[in-house]
Specification:
mainly alpha, 12 helices, 2 strands, elongated
Length: 252
């Protein structure tokens, strides 16, 4: 028999070289919690109309932080599986009320992760803005503050847009266009339903007034060319929002 009638078996090393492992998805903890709760709802453990265990109870049962549970519960509300009823709890809705599933890439980054990133990046951006700004940047910041101040509450579009423009203008004033790209991209998540619902539930009615005062402090530090004060006031501003997200709680 001719030798070419046979195919030489691949060596173990060759098999390892050609083997392909499955791609793994980087899943945020809050999404895993939400998926677990959704599965339990579908299995009938939590029938429509009943209330889920409290945030504290879920955190203890799952051995996770209340912050992660909070993100999961708000994510479930955004997708229509539950309704967060202030003063009462988190109520399970009928499956028929569930809207079309969102694109996972749109909800993969949670509000807390966004704020954690911003509190690292934007203080440094503010420091650079204090050193590199031009008058046109200061004019843009002032216009953004005026736009935000024209809103009667934190809900109207002019409030949110003024807030966004203020921070983007600071990034523009840094002198590094890469920072403008990064800050603008992070701000896109502010318009996501999950982030908006976080703000509605966890930011108190005093936040608009505090934001205006904090923005004024940041503006004055940048205008004065005080990099240390600009970074410090920006960090204090972002810490206030992040603290509200972490300390606030969904209804028990």
């Amino acid at each position: 028999m001719r030798s070419n009638d046979f195919t030489d078996p691949a060596s173990p090393s060759e098999e390892r070289a050609t083997a392909r492992l499955p791609q793994l998805e980087s899943t945020r903890l809050y999404r895993r919690i939400a998926e677990l709760l959704e599965t339990r709802i579908d299995q009938g453990l939590f029938p429509a109309g009943t209330f889920l265990p409290s945030e504290r109870e879920l955190a203890e049962q799952l051995a996770v932080s209340r912050t992660s549970v909070r993100e999961a519960l708000i994510a479930l509300e955004v997708t229509g599986r539950v309704a967060i009823r202030p003063g009462h709890g988190v109520q399970v809705l009928l499956g028929a009320q569930r809207p079309a599933a969102q694109n996972p890439s749109e909800v993969d980054i949670g509000p807390i992760q966004i704020m954690e990133a911003r509190r690292v990046i934007e203080p440094r951006v503010a420091e650079l803005a204090a050193a590199n700004h031009r008058q046109e940047n200061l004019d843009g910041m002032r216009a953004a503050m005026d736009l935000q101040a024209s809103a009667t509450s934190a809900t109207p579009e002019n409030y949110r847009e003024g807030d966004r423009l203020f921070h983007v203008e600071i990034a523009r004033a840094s002198g590094n266009p890469a920072y403008e790209v990064v800050v603008s991209k992070l701000w896109e998540y502010r318009t996501k339903p999950l982030f908006e619902r976080f703000e509605q539930l966890l930011l108190g009615p005093d936040r608009p007034g505090r934001t205006a005062a904090e923005h004024q402090n940041i503006f004055e530090a940048i205008a004065a060319g005080d990099a240390t004060a600009a970074g410090k006031t920006m960090k204090q501003h972002l810490d206030g929002v992040l603290s509200a997200f972490i300390k606030g709680s969904t209804p028990e």
